[in-house]
Specification:
Elements (H helix, E strand, L loop, with lengths): L20 H17 L4 H8 L3 H8 L7 H11 L3 H16 L2 H5 L3
Helix pairs in contact: 1-5, 2-3, 2-4, 4-5
């Protein structure tokens, strides 16, 4: 073993979080938009997806990022594929990352 190498520690590095706030917000916006288009209440979407209503609320508010199982379940509850849900999420994320002048067409 290299004596200069430090031993690995279990867990996340200090200060690391499991969700990027911009990504979490974009996913939440995409879910809210799709849910409203489908005319489904947040509570009903949670029920259809098999997740807790409070968890769905956190996702929609951008306070957490879902795991892959939740993405698949939410997409199915919305009547679409996970691919479609992720595509919509990426559209929201890209729009949020554009500079304000580009988003409004002003320079």
């Amino acid at each position: 073993m290299n004596e200069a190498a430090k031993p690995l520690k279990a867990g996340r590095p200090a200060g690391a979080t499991s969700a990027d706030p911009a990504i979490a917000r974009a996913f939440g916006v995409a879910v809210v938009n799709m849910r409203r288009e489908a005319k489904i209440s947040q509570e009903n979407l949670a029920l259809l997806a098999g997740v807790d209503r409070s968890y769905m609320g956190k996702l929609e508010r951008g306070q957490g990022a879902p795991n892959l199982v939740a993405v698949v379940r939410i997409a199915a509850a919305l009547g679409c594929s996970a691919t479609e849900l992720v595509r919509r999420f990426e559209e929201v994320l890209q729009a949020a990352m554009r500079p304000a002048s580009e988003a409004t067409g002003l320079d």
